[in-house]
Amino acid sequence: MIVAGFGFRAGVSAQSLADALALTGAAPDALATAEDKAAHPAFRALAHALNLPVHALPAAALDQPTATRSAASLAARGTGSLAEAAALAVVGPRARLLAPRQISPDRMATCAIATGDPE
Fold first, then answer.
1. Domain containing residue 90
2. First to last CA, the chain
């Protein structure tokens, strides 16, 4: 299973999300983000365009060790990277990052890729 985790700002566009995903070079099986972000219209539009399921994760599930240590993400979410934490959380305890957090050119979205065998 390959999961694309996302973090993004409120004003993000579907194109920004797609740009961040493209920077990872991956073709995910599913998308993931925080529960409160999963209904964002741009995120839903990307999921629809890619025909992929969405995993909306509660804050407790995002308590994952991440390769990236963003001060903004730590302050807002308690994790070094929402994108990395979301991707890792969906895959499960044997998850590993295939691509650490990538930032869209407009700096509105981040995407990270995790893989592994889900439990």
1. 2-107
2. 11
Quote the DSSP letter at residue 88: H
CATH of the domain at 43: 3.30.420.180
pTM of the model: 0.93
Please count the structural domains in the chain.
1
- Residue bearing tokens 């995910």: 28
Count Cβ neighbours within 10 Å for each residue of 49-80 and write b for 16 or more, e otherwise.
ebebebbbbeeebbebebebebeebeeebebb
Up-side HSE of residue 112: CA atoms within 13 Å toward CB?
24
In a domain, 55, yes or no: yes
Distances (CA, A) of 4 to 44, 75, 88, 95, 110: 14, 22, 9, 12, 10
pLDDT in tens, the chain (119 residues): 999 999 999 999 999 999 999 999 999 999 999 999 999 999 999 999 999 999 999 999 998 889 988 888 888 888 889 999 999 999 988 899 998 899 999 999 999 999 987 55
